[in-house]
Amino acid sequence: MAFFKEVRARTLARMPLRSDWSTEHCPIRRSLDVLGDPWVLLIVRDVLHGSGRFEQLRDNLGISEAVLSRRLRAMREAGLLDTVDYVRDGRTRQRYVATEAAADLLPLLQQLAIWGEQHTRLPDGGAHMTLRHEPCGRETTRAETCSACGEPLRPEDMTWVKPWRSAEHRLRGPGG
């Protein structure tokens, strides 16, 4: 773990300013142009969990309002998020929902969770996260298809069990 921190510190010290890769031929560069900021994937994760209100995102992520506002605006422009109206305290407000493009990130998010479980050290007192495929009711150890039943994994069919929060979060599909 110390090795990763050392490498990261050296890399960040040499990193050039962010480039615009939106017109690149390489699809990985174009993808990173949209998804390369860690906040983007964390926001998509939370929105897929149904935490789409600005205040929820701010509090869950521990992100400043200014940074969150910029990320949300950019994510809407990139087609990752939409907004839907809801009424609270007699006022119409908006919450963020995932688009099809954001829902298509589910395998990437699940693979990151699986990789993190396998290759990073669990903090003291922590417990392992599991991914449960609701149609078959079993844990999956794969990101795109259920390792138990072989069915494709869709956001609305997944529950992420997070013991450190004593929580089970059922995911939502696009527009949810």
From TrEMBL:
Query: Looking at the keywords, is Metal-binding present?
Result: no
Q: By its UniProt entry, which PROSITE patterns does this protein fall under?
A: HTH_HXLR
Gene3D superfamilies annotated for this entry? Winged helix-like DNA-binding domain superfamily/Winged helix DNA-binding domain
In this protein, which residues make up the domain named HTH hxlR-type?
A: 26-124
Keywords, A to Z, come to: DNA-binding, Transcription, Transcription regulation
Query: PANTHER family in the record, alphabetically?
Result: TRANSCRIPTIONAL REGULATOR, MARR FAMILY, TRANSCRIPTIONAL REGULATORY PROTEIN
Q: What is this protein called?
A: Helix-turn-helix domain-containing protein
Q: Which organism is it from?
A: Nocardioides humi
What taxonomic classification does the UniProt entry list for its organism? Bacteria, Bacillati, Actinomycetota, Actinomycetes, Propionibacteriales
